Amino acid sequence: MTTNLATRLYTFSRKRIRILIGEYTGSNQRPRLLSTESFLALSAVLCGQFNMELCNIIATMDVGCQLDLKNISLMVAASKYNPQRFSGLTLRIKCPKATAQVFSTGKLVCLGTKSIADLDTAGREFVRFLVLLGCEAKFNGFTINNIVGSANTGFKINLGLMADHSNAIFEPELFPALQLRKKNVTLLIFHTGKVI
Question: DSSP strand E in 9-155: where?
Answer without folding.
Answer: 53-62, 89-93, 98-102, 107-113, 143-152
